[in-house]
Automatic annotation (TrEMBL), chains A, B, C:
InterPro entries to which the protein is assigned, alphabetical: CdAMP_rec, N-reg_PII-like_a/b, N-reg_PII/ATP_PRibTrfase_C
Pfam families linked to this entry: CdAMP_rec (PF06153)
PANTHER family the record matches: CYCLIC DI-AMP RECEPTOR A
The protein, known as: Uncharacterized protein YaaQ
Domain of life: Bacteria
Lineage: Bacteria, Bacillati, Bacillota, Bacilli, Bacillales
């Protein structure tokens, strides 16, 4: 048994929890602030069998890896809005910091 | 030294923390959502000496084990309330998911 | 790699996180209640290389150690305020409970 602690972006948490649930991994979500990543992150605790760790890590990687996202920039306030042509810009989103911890005992009551 | 991480139902947290305090176990409560159990759970971190782990686990088991609870059902809305005889029903409550983690160093400043 | 879990007082968390950031330690802050210390504490998770643990612990100790603080007492309500001379009193603040956990794997995606 291992305990995976994953610090991820809030916006990735729903799709990651869904993907983990589909494979029957049970997750507990802790509210967190600041930290390894930007503001607005979430810490997930995932208990899993030692031989399932690689699979769970693969799911975490797939759902959270750093990636570029096109966003429409806000048009500049007070400028000449007529002549302003907003061009989408790339920002980096996602990312995960993951610890796999050894577990002495795992129990369910 | 071990670190016990217990994910329990919110409703069991007060009585468990009380029971652990009586035996001088120190607990830290993290707010959690979703997870190993139903919505509305709490994660407790309990630091304890290696030779006290079994005793602490026994207390956790006693205060959180899954059990049946009789609840009065809500009477059906819009139905003929006069002829409706509410019968208490059994629901399952409680439960705990517990990890005992090894600790390299324990310090208090 | 080690995972340091530090339960500290809320009021010490900002200056500790700042001090850890200056040395490039990355921290994640969990909201916690009750616990090892008085009400109003914070749990920090700090990932660091095994050979940096002592340095990180030194920073935690410096920023959180129990210490006396002079506070002006509230003047007694309904008493004869004219004849009441408030004298600052010493209260104990700070303190940290720290676990250093072994880590099997550390990954960043
Ligand atoms: Ni969904
Ligand atoms: Ni009580
Ligand atoms: Ni600052």
């Amino acid at each position: 048994m291992k305990l995976i602690i994953a610090v991820i972006e809030d916006k990735d948490s729903h799709r990651l929890i869904d993907a983990l649930s589909e494979k029957e991994y049970k997750t507990t979500k802790l509210s967190t602030t600041g930290g390894f990543l930007k503001e607005g992150n979430t810490t997930l605790m995932i208990g899993c069998n030692s031989d399932a760790v690689d699979d769970a890590l693969e799911i975490i990687k797939n759902k959270t890896s750093k990636r570029e996202q096109m966003v429409a920039p806000i048009s500049p306030m007070g400028g000449n809005a007529d002549s302003y042509i907003p061009r989408p810009i790339n920002i980096e989103v996602g990312g995960a910091t993951v610890f796999v911890l050894p577990v002495d005992q795992f129990l369910q009551f």
